[in-house]
Fold each of these.
Amino acid sequence: MADALTLEIVTPEMMAFSGVVEEVTIPGTEGEFGVLKGHASLLSSVDIGELSFTQDQKKTRYAVNTGYAEVTASKVTVLVETAERSDLIDVERARRAKERAEEKLAKLPKEDVEFQKSRAALVRALARLNVAGKN
């Protein structure tokens, strides 16, 4: 069994976080899952939503976009398109993105390719607003 659990949150632009944590909760595409040190190895896809972890008994939250998570007994590596820490989310920008997506969705037929893109933009904006609200 591992002595510590290391978490790395990586985006194409940067290492969003790297450090030792007590636990991690990840929004998997098959449902949210938690990881503690000594966890069985697994590979999972990550969905848009809230990723949280506890470090020194303090919870930190990130709004994440889609990607993958690799879990071993001592390390969790999360590779996602975007990751924004809750206290760094621009709430007004997220609200504007939500409003734009809602306006587009109201005008588009469900069969339109743009409908799915706008729906994904809405889900991302809602996730950002939800995570920012827990700051």
Amino acid sequence: MEKGIMSTKIKGHAKLPKTYRELCGLLMPRKIHDDTELEAAQEIMDALTVLPTRTSDQDDYFETLAELVEAYEEQAVKFTKRSGLETLKFLLTENNLTASDLSRLLGTDISLGYRILDGERNLTTKHIKKLAGHFHVGPEVFL
């Protein structure tokens, strides 16, 4: 799988680790960045859900994954409710970046960032690809 995520193809709940440390060996709990990481977390959560009983470590691990999944899904909903320009402004604000920083990210003259944020200029396909790569989001959020 991508980005160093171990395949979690769990066959039966009997093989699920019982301690938090062992569960972390399947998938280290951390911020979810993409759908591949989301699917890995959900697969483990599904396996934990069907256990007849869970250890306290399994409960803690499950709750941690649930919080990470919820945060990722909330972020995805925020992006789908915004226009491309609103999403760009949101990402810049969240990353403490200015219009000048935007210009540098795009590799253009300093005024372009301001004109894009003021709605005077649109993002090009090249700009969208650069921004999607920089912010680790799908290009569709800028459309």
Amino acid sequence: MIAVYQGSDYFEAQLLAGLMEQAGLQVFLQGVALQGGLGDLPALGHLSIAVNNADHDHAVSIIQAYEQGDYALEDQD
């Protein structure tokens, strides 16, 4: 197992994990249970996504595509 994402945004972590699972990767989202115990001031970097070592490059390419906006929805007028 190797970590490919580290952050504190629960929704972004869930979205990235979903994109990776949709691509057929086995994903391990860690730190989700800590959300409720953080108190008023959120801790940074408590969420992480890990994948199998063989899937590292594929997972990183999904994260890069997400960051570049490749998964953005288009506005329809």
